[in-house]
Automatic annotation (TrEMBL):
GO terms for cellular component: membrane. Keywords: Cell adhesion, Membrane, Transmembrane, Transmembrane helix. Its main location: membrane. One of its GO terms (biological process) is cell adhesion. The keyword Transmembrane helix applies. The chain crosses the membrane at residues 64-88, 109-127. It is found in: Membrane. It is a multi-pass membrane protein. It comes from the Eukaryota. The gene is LOC105232106. Belongs to the ninjurin family. This is Ninjurin-1 isoform X2. The keyword rRNA-binding does not apply.
Length: 143
């Protein structure tokens, strides 16, 4: 009888652990965190664009930086529009199997935009002359 009671108690504790790990709650938190990171990147790009426009042609890579920052902002906005359309599709039509293919295509395109945005921002960081050079373990200010 004691074994049955122990087994029942273990079953109830496992069930409560499964309820604690709700997949929808995890997905919601992940989406919110990703949105905050997207907003932070958009804010950083806006700040970099402001700096480049203030400095003007005096910046060594003015045209390149202007093009890359603008392209990054455009890709972020398009990615946001695709995310909105995907969430609207999920809320309105995802119960219908014929919309699965288009949702996957939109998701892949959005992932591609995110990859290219990250790559462009890597190059933006490389060409940013506001950052000091690190040579031989010592920081050397650019002139």
């Amino acid at each position: 009888m004691a074994q049955i009671a122990t087994s029942m108690a273990n079953a109830f504790s496992n069930e409560s652990e499964m309820k604690a790990m709700d997949a929808n709650r995890y997905a919601t938190k992940k989406t919110i965190a990703q949105g905050m990171l997207d907003i932070a990147l958009l804010t950083a790009n806006a700040s970099q664009l402001k700096y480049i426009l203030q400095v003007g042609d005096q910046h060594q890579f003015y045209k390149l930086m202007l093009i890359m920052i603008s392209l990054s902002i455009i890709l972020q906005v398009l990615s946001g529009v695709l995310s909105l359309s995907l969430s609207l599709m999920r809320d309105c039509r995802m119960h219908k199997p014929e919309y699965y293919q288009s949702a996957n295509v939109i998701n892949h395109i959005r992932t591609g935009f995110a990859f290219f945005t990250a790559t462009i921002n890597l190059f933006i960081s490389a060409f940013d002359t506001r950052l000091p050079l690190l040579i031989g373990g010592q920081v050397e200010e650019q002139k």
